[in-house]
Amino acid sequence: MKITLLQKLGDFTVGRIWIEDVQGIPVPRAMLGNVVCDVETKAELLEAGIASCNPVKLESEFPEQVLVRYEHSDGNVEEMILEESCADARLVAAVRKFHVLALAGDAQSGMEL
Q1: Where are the alpha helices (DSSP H) in 5-77?
Q2: Cα(first)–Cα(last) distance of the chain, in Å?
Q3: What is the rounded distance in angstroms from the CA atom of residue 76 to the CA atom of residue 45?
Q4: How far, in Å, CA of 113 to CA of 66, rounded?
Q5: CA atoms of 45 and 99, how far apart (whole Å)
Q6: 10 Å Cβ neighbour count for 9?
Q7: Which positions ≥6 away from 57 have C-beta within 8 Å?
């Protein structure tokens, strides 16, 4: 499967990006607009320049979406909107950095990404 970013849907400001300890596990977080989000993603999305952003407070609304094209291995192609997703280059680079730090065992709470 191949994922291609077609368009960012939404406009907000990416603020601070850091690592926070959540129940003993380092987690990447970001201030997106005025919403604190856990930032994560699958390898296929990272390759396409997309990060998944889940608001820490469930009642918070996250305004960002992305339109992507999925090319399946069977040749089928579909376009879809991914909710709670972000295509900000700085944020995607921070998630990549977090993955490198986490694999090396060097991700520490309070680190800026």
Answers
A1: 43-47
A2: 29
A3: 18
A4: 23
A5: 14
A6: 15
A7: 35, 36
CB 95 within 8 A of CB 86: no
Backbone phi, then psi, for 91, in 5-degree steps? Answer: -70, -45
pLDDT in tens, the chain (113 residues): 688 888 777 767 889 999 999 999 999 999 988 889 999 888 888 888 999 988 898 777 766 788 899 888 899 999 988 888 888 899 999 999 999 999 999 999 999 99
CA gap 86, 29 in Å, rounded: 13
Across 10-48, b (16+ Cβ under 10 Å) vs e yields eebebeebbbeeeeeebbbbbebbebbbebbbeeebbeb
Which pTM does this prediction carry?
0.85
